[in-house]
Specification:
The protein is an all-alpha fold and about 170 residues long. The chain is built from one helix and no strands.
Length: about 170
């Protein structure tokens, strides 16, 4: 029986050793597949991390560009605000100048109408005076004719002896 026991113990030990080896082999295969899975997951996470870092870098660059553009836009807005205020002041000055010019134009237009009325009156007066001058020239000519006739009578009467009046002198 000792031999049987010795054989069984040896067989039992061999079986136990095989079971342990099979266990180690199974555990090794299990951990190998699990390690492959974990390694693959790590690679995926690592790739995702790389993509995220790249996206973060691009987003950071875009953010910095946007901040620069915003600062530039803010500066431009300040410039345009200053320019707007300057142009608004200039516009107010031009409006005042325009109002003054329009007032001056109105004054000159009214003055022109007054002058035109005065010129029309003076022209009418000149026409009347020209007619009066023409009439006076006519009267002067008539009086000159009358003076010439009277001078002719005087001459005729002087050429005749005193006291004799000839009819031919009074024609």
């Amino acid at each position: 029986m000792t031999e049987f026991m010795g054989k069984k113990v040896n067989l039992f030990l061999v079986l136990m050793l095989m079971l342990v080896l099979l266990g180690f082999g199974g555990v090794s295969v299990y951990y190998q597949y699990t390690f492959k899975d974990l390694n693959q997951k790590f690679d995926n996470v690592s790739n995702n991390l790389g993509v995220c870092e790249q996206n973060l870098s691009q987003t950071t660059d875009a953010f910095m560009t946007a901040v620069k553009n915003l600062n530039s836009t803010e500066t431009d807005i300040r410039k345009y605000d200053t320019l707007y205020e300057q142009k608004a002041a200039e516009l107010e000055g031009k409006k005042t100048d325009l109002a003054n010019t329009q007032a001056e134009l109105t004054r000159v237009t009214v003055q022109k109408e007054v002058y035109k009325t005065q010129i029309d009156q003076a022209y009418t007066q000149i026409i009347g005076l020209n007619k009066t001058i023409t009439n006076l020239y006519g009267q002067i000519n008539g009086l000159n004719v009358q003076i010439n006739r009277l001078n002719s009578r005087v001459t005729c009467l002087r050429n005749n002896p005193d006291g004799i009046e000839l009819e031919e002198c009074f024609d």
